[in-house]
Amino acid sequence: MGLPVHPLWLIIVLAVMLITCLPLVLLVVLAAVVPSRRAGGPPGYGLRSPDGRWWWDGSQWQPAPAANGDP
Questions:
Q1: CA distances in angstroms from 8 to 1, 4, 20, 30, listed in the order given
Q2: CA distance 45 to 55
Q3: pLDDT truncated to tens, each residue of the chain (71 aa)?
């Protein structure tokens, strides 16, 4: 008893799946590997107030250091 479809059709279907899915897989891998560069506050601080002088630690507002490093 043979396969219900011709093996050539299986090869064609696999090739089409590879051609159509490969760019998506590469895009996902690239997005996971390349670090994101978002503009905003310094790393290590959560949500900032609109004026940038305070950051939210999850329970209360804390003073944020100045952008030039002065306290």
A1: 17, 12, 18, 33
A2: 6
A3: 677 888 899 999 999 998 999 889 899 888 888 876 555 544 555 688 888 888 888 888 888 877 665 55
**H/E run at residue 8:** helix 7-33
Beta strands in the chain (DSSP E): 54-56, 61-63
Q: What are the φ/ψ torsions at residue 26 (nearest 5 degrees)?
A: -65, -40
* 37 HSE (CA, 13 A, CB side): 1
H/E stretch holding 40 reads: none
Task: Give the global pTM.
Answer: 0.36
**For the chain, domain boundaries:** 7-34
